[in-house]
Amino acid sequence: MSAAQNEFRKRGKKHFGGGQHHAKRWRGSRELEVGMQGILITCNMNQRKCTAEAFNLLNEYADQLYGAEKFDDDAGGCNEEEENAKEEEDVEEALKKEMAQLRAYGGRQERRFQALESGANNVIFIRTRNLESDKLVHHILSDLHATKKKKTRVILRMLPVTGTCRAFPEDIMRYLATFLEPWFKKPNCATYQIAFKARNNSHNKRDDVIKAIAGLVGKLNPKNKVDLTQPDLTIILEVIKAVCCVSVVREYTRYRKYNLQEVVKDEEPKKEEGGTVTEKAAVSEENAAKKEETNTVTEKVSEAAAGDESAAKKEETNTVTEKASEAAASEKEAAKEEEGNTVTDTAEEANEKEGEAVTETAPTGTGELGEEKQPDEEDMQEESAKEDDDDKGEGDGK
Length: 398
Hints:
This protein has helices spanning 3-9, 18-27, 47-66, 74-85, 91-105, 133-147, 169-179, 181-184, 206-220, 260-263, 277-373, 377-397, and strands at residues 38-42, 113-117, 123-128, 157-161, 163-166, 191-199, 225-226, 233-240, 243-250. By secondary structure, it is α+β, with helices and mostly antiparallel strands. The radius of gyration is 59 Å and the shape is rod-shaped.
């Protein structure tokens, strides 16, 4: 087999563009490193669009706080002077000067926002220069919360990063010992909570890190207390590979954990501790009205349920009485039928007995009694002779 055929067989991803894409991705970009400040942004499966939305949003609010971004105009002034001097100078000298200027000003000018590789999927780190990232992010969230205008579609959370260190437990605790002093060291004190998340890192366990930080804050000032519902400050730790991003923010729970999609949604009014007396009275009246409404509703429901039960009972009783009446009617009909049958039976028996008696008496009367009731002529003569004899004897006696 020839060498050309072997080379053709050995062609891999680089020949078809797989390696070139990876090289382009890492050649001109930088990664998140220790000692940087910026903003950590999370998205959902569309990093390019998320980066574009982040630049638009950050530039809009940065112009409001810090003014428009300024650029160096030295190169433009030199170009104008050269254009005026080209007429007098030779072409070769002009080319040499242009080459020198390109070398002098050809480096990439640093902007106030620069996108870097974070080292995790769906996470973007934007490095900031000459501005405070925590104030900028808080201003963005407060404005979105007040106006309820949705200005992003892909960005989920936007977390400020005011400090970075190596992502080992010893380095994290050493860095936080000095980083947390402005907020928690005597005489400063506040209620706090700790939000910890690790990506592409297995050196830190969440419970161990939180316990260590809580012990450190307690040492700075024993008056610092943990509050997980409405804390004054929130310590955010985002560990990505070998870098730990740290920041301390305010109103973390109010702004829905700095989620831009949730901040825009309307939320129900809640009772605050520092409200006025009228507000508390209004809230109590609303609660009382709600309780009355719920009571009336429950009473109506109970009455309806009782009515349904009584109706069901009435229906049951009606059905029972109907069944009983039907049974009684059927029993009466059966009794009547039996009585009729017995009457007919007795009548028939009586008729049969009378007929038998008639048939029995009829032949006796015609036979024996007929003979007795119709005596013979001889007997009649004897009786008449006896009567005559009796009459004569009576006359003799007189």
